[in-house]
Structure formats: structure tokens, C-alpha cells
Design brief:
Number of helices: 15
CATH superfamily of the largest domain: Response regulator
Shape: globular
Largest sheet: 8 strands, mixed
Helix content: 25-40%
Low-confidence stretches: none
Number of strands: 19
Distance between the termini: 94 Å
Structural class: alpha/beta
Number of domains: 2
Mean pLDDT: 89
Radius of gyration: 26 Å
CATH topology of the largest domain: Rossmann fold
């Protein structure tokens, strides 16, 4: 072989070897993807997708496809992107059902906001999975920041956020620092909130943050208001709280500690420590001791500052130890809205005992309940007739803070019926009683209203900036209030929902079979209903 051929073949061989190494290296470095925009990291599918991917959770697959279908429907119209950020994978069936409820609310809210009165821009909804307990939120926030800067994606708001954790707070802080509006639909912890001041100004720790769920402090005030209204002023109470660092638990414990009781003092607060939100650990053993100590006291009401998984275990332990045939009421926060889904027929039987009488009932401040508005209007009309010679009230006499949310709930039910008529599968009928569908739906409506308000006067071919959308939060009150299914949404200067009512509900084991979830009344954080037209007073409590 001529020398020049040997040299040529050697060079070609080297080139091929280098190319092979480069190709192999690229394969090794290439991320393992679950779907477009979603990376597999240690068994979790983390990322952002709006094309119908279910993140390996079959319960949400149909509603994810419904969202993708709506995205395709509006893709040729002026639109912006809104991200729904919350953990979308779990080994627990109950949590997967809760995810489905959240996404059903997101889809129905997107659908209703896009229908509107033809106003631009429309909402393209994408799902953002930050991993278990928001553990990989930094990677997802990186993606969302790129989407906000992209002229194709035009990300204009992020919503969702269902856990008051340090990782959640970090995600909200970074998004708002980068001028991306955030609407927290289901955070109740006090830490992830701007602080309203008495003069109407606000301390903006998170500029561009709005939240439509009352803080734990407001929920505790509403519970105290409700129980005061019912005349239960001689409660003998005890606080049981989780010491594990968790924004929800901490703020709820502080709120319950701040309730001024008019009855005799109960026993000192009792603590426990759970391993995590969705792990029981040794809490069962801890609760046996706690329940025995409560039984030896005169307490009849337990304020419980902990997550749903541990609330269920505690309620069963309190029923199990007997407690001298006494009945106990456990009072907790908004996370307890998931409790009923975790209860089994055997659990209900334990709460009743052998004699069929309820040993323990659980009362909590739910963000919403579908029976609230009709029940409250019926009670209101009854009182009105008693002072007006049995005359029926006219429509103009009815309180706005009840009629507008009732109309919003009726509109949501029509959306559900219309989607079913169109053959859209949502993975099952939305369960409005757990409040998740209603609240997330209201969050999308609020974002839609902010988008349309920011767009006014601008050409349809343009879309509002992130700053324009964020500035709308504090303007959504009075004439621009949002009639939500969970109540009137009137946002303060700090982006907090002013005097948002909570639905007080009780889980009652009854006398046989599965227990019932019963709406028992509304509680108001200020001790009184929202003012007419939801005009926020200059001095807020």
C-alpha cells in the first residue's frame, strides 16, 4: 500500500474514532427524558409540558389530554402561557386523586376564562412538576424563567402551589424576584404571603404574589368567629402540634395559640414529630400517649396543627383509647379537606365505637364547599322573613357576598355538563366537596381577569407584559372583584384575599356505614361578612 494511502486511512480512522467517542459521550450526557420538556431524575419525571403528558400518573391522564386539547384550540389566537406548578407523582392513591381534582379545576377554569366574552389573550396552560415536596423546584423554575423570556411561550403567570414548604417558598421567591406573577391557589401558610399594613400599604416580600386562600391565621380567626356565633364559648381546648419544620404546621399552631378562649383554661399544648408530610413514622405510638394525656384532662376540643395523614391517625387513636365515653371535636386547618378521601369503612367504625355513637368528629376550615351558598341563603332568608312579616325577600335584597358565589358555582357546574356533552373525559366526575376543583378553578378565573384587564386598550396582536399582569392583582376588588365559587375574591395591596370566608365543615361518623361530610356554616376572618361590592376599608385588621 502506498505511503499516502496509509496516512489517509490513519487519519480517517482517527476521525471515525473521535466521532464515535463524541457520539457515545453525547448519548451518555443526554438527559433521560419522560416526554418533551420533562426529564427523568432518580425516578421522577420533572419538567414542564402542555401536550397532554401525565407524568406517569394515570389518574391525571384524561384531564391532561383535555388541557392539551384546549391548548390546540386556541393556539392560532392571541394567547399567553400560564403554568400550573405542583407535584404530579405519588405512590399514594389518595394523593393522585387529589392531583386529578386540582387539574380538573385548572382545566375548567382555563376553559371558562378562554370563553369569557371573546377578550384576548387566551390562556395556554402547561403542567409543571417540581418533584416530591417541590424538591426539584429549582430546575423547573429555570425552565419557567426561560419561558417568560421566550417570545413564543410568553409565560405570564404561575399558579398551583399546594404545600407551604421551604422549597415552595424558595420557588415563589425566585419567580417573583424575576417579575413573574404568581397566584397561589392553595397555600395557607402565613410565611408565603405579603404583609398588609393597617394604613392600606403592604410589605411586599414577594412582589407580584397573589393568593386566594385565607392564611392559617385568618382561617383560625374564622373558626373562632364561627364557634363564637354558635355560642360555644365554654370550650375546654388543647393544642396538639407537629414540631417538624413545615410552614403550614407552624403558622396553624401560632394561629390556634392566639385564639382567645372565654372558657376555662385547658391543658398545656402537646407536641409530636412526624418524619414528613406523607409518612406516618412513629406518630401512632406518640398519639397513644397524647390521647391518654388528653383523656386525663377535661379537654373536649383539640386544635390540631398537622397534616392530613397524621390527623387521621390521631383521630383514630383518640377514639381508640376510650376517654371515659366522652365525645371530642378535633379542629384543624385547610389541609384537612383531604381527610375524607383517606378514610376507610373500618376507620369510620372506629370513630363510632361499639355502641354506634360518635366518639370523635373533625371540624375544619375548608377553602370552599358546594353546599355553602344555598344553605347560607336559605338561613339568611329565614331570618329576613322573621323581621319582615314573613314577606319573601326580592332578589335585590339578597346579600351579594352569597348570591355572586352561588352564580359562580352554577357556572362551574354548567362547564362540567358542557364538557361532558362534548365527550371530554376528565377522568371521572369532579368531586366539588374536597374544595380543590373549586379553588383551582377560581385561581384560573382570577388570572384570566387580570390578563383581560391588563390587555384593555392594547391591540389584539400584542399581549400584556409580566409587569402589567402583576400590577393587576391589587386592583381586583370593588368593581373588579372576582366572583369565585369559593367566595368573592377581593385582593388587597399585598395581594391577599380580603375577609375571604371559610366553609366550616364536619366529618361526622354517624351511626353506621361511612360517615358524612357536612357543611355547618361560614366563618369570617374579620368577624363579619365582606362589605357591599367588596370595597376594602382603608384600615384592615
Amino acid at each position: 500500500m502506498p505511503r499516502w494511502k496509509k496516512i489517509l486511512y490513519s487519519v480517517l480512522g482517527a476521525v471515525v474514532a473521535v466521532a464515535a467517542i463524541a457520539f457515545t459521550t453525547s448519548l451518555v450526557r443526554r438527559p433521560d427524558t419522560c416526554a418533551d420538556g420533562v426529564e427523568r431524575i432518580e425516578g421522577e419525571c420533572v419538567g414542564v409540558n402542555g401536550d397532554g403528558y401525565d407524568f406517569g400518573t394515570p389518574e391525571i391522564a384524561p384531564v391532561a389530554r383535555a388541557i392539551a386539547r384546549e391548548n390546540r384550540r386556541i393556539e392560532k389566537q392571541p394567547h399567553v402561557t400560564v403554568a400550573m406548578m405542583l407535584p404530579l407523582q405519588s405512590d399514594r392513591e389518595a394523593l393522585r386523586r387529589q392531583m386529578r381534582s386540582d387539574l380538573q379545576g385548572a382545566y375548567l377554569g382555563q376553559r371558562q376564562a378562554n370563553a369569557g366574552e371573546g377578550e384576548p389573550p387566551k390562556i395556554r396552560l402547561v403542567l409543571a412538576n417540581p418533584g416530591q415536596d417541590y424538591g426539584r423546584q429549582a430546575k423547573v423554575v429555570d425552565t419557567l424563567l426561560r419561558m417568560a423570556a421566550s417570545p413564543e411561550d410568553r409565560l405570564r403567570a404561575v399558579t398551583g402551589f399546594n404545600l407551604s414548604l421551604a422549597a415552595t417558598e424558595a420557588a415563589v421567591a425566585r419567580l417573583t424576584e424575576n417579575r413573574i406573577p404568581v397566584l397561589a391557589a392553595r397555600i395557607s401558610g402565613d410565611r408565603i404571603a405579603n404583609k398588609d399594613q393597617a394604613d392600606g400599604m403592604a410589605e411586599l416580600r414577594f412582589p407580584g404574589l397573589a393568593r386566594i386562600l385565607p392564611t392559617n391565621t385568618d382561617a383560625a380567626r374564622a373558626l373562632a368567629d364561627f364557634n363564637g356565633e354558635r355560642g360555644r364559648r365554654n370550650l375546654k381546648t388543647v393544642l396538639v402540634y407537629d414540631k417538624r419544620p413545615d410552614g403550614y404546621n407552624e403558622s396553624l399552631a401560632r394561629a390556634f395559640s392566639g385564639i382567645k378562649e372565654k372558657g376555662p383554661a385547658g391543658p398545656a399544648a402537646m407536641s409530636f414529630e412526624s418524619p414528613s408530610i406523607d409518612e406516618a413514622g412513629s406518630t401512632g405510638n406518640q398519639f397513644t400517649q397524647t390521647a391518654n394525656n388528653i383523656c386525663d384532662s377535661e379537654a373536649d376540643t383539640v386544635y390540631f396543627a398537622g397534616r392530613t395523614l397524621h390527623l387521621r391517625i390521631f383521630a383514630l387513636k383518640l377514639a381508640e383509647v376510650g376517654c371515659k365515653d366522652r365525645h371530642y371535636t378535633i379542629v384543624s386547618g385547610s389541609d384537612a379537606a383531604s381527610l375524607r378521601q383517606d378514610m376507610t369503612e373500618q376507620d369510620w367504625a372506629k370513630l363510632r365505637g361499639d355502641d354506634g355513637r360518635a366518639k370523635v368528629t373533625v371540624q375544619y376550615a375548608a377553602p370552599a364547599h358546594p353546599a355553602a351558598w344555598t344553605t347560607e341563603l336559605t338561613d339568611w332568608a329565614k331570618k329576613w322573613r322573621s323581621t319582615h312579616n314573613n314577606r319573601e325577600p326580592a332578589e335585590r335584597d339578597l346579600p351579594q357576598y352569597l348570591t355572586e358565589p352561588r352564580a359562580a358555582l352554577d357556572a362551574l357546574r354548567r362547564q362540567i355538563i358542557a364538557a361532558e356533552a362534548e365527550g371530554i373525559d376528565l377522568g371521572g366526575a369532579p368531586n366539588l366537596e374536597d374544595s380543590r376543583t373549586m379553588l383551582v378553578h377560581d385561581g384560573l378565573l382570577t388570572i384570566g381577569k387580570a390578563l383581560h384587564q391588563a390587555q384593555q386598550g392594547a391591540p389584539e396582536t400584542t399581549v400584556p407584559s409580566r409587569e402589567d399582569v402583576g400590577r393587576q392583582w391589587s386592583l381586583l376588588h370593588s368593581r373588579h372583584r372576582v366572583a369565585g365559587t369559593s367566595g368573592l375574591i377581593c385582593l388587597t395591596t399585598g395581594g391577599n384575599a380580603y375577609d375571604k370566608p371559610v366553609s366550616i365543615v364536619e366529618l361526622d361518623p354517624g351511626t353506621k356505614g361511612n360517615g358524612t361530610l357536612k357543611f355547618v356554616g361560614l366563618g369570617w376572618p374579620t368577624g363579619r361578612p365582606q362589605p357591599k361590592n367588596c370595597v376594602i376599608p382603608s384600615t384592615t385588621p
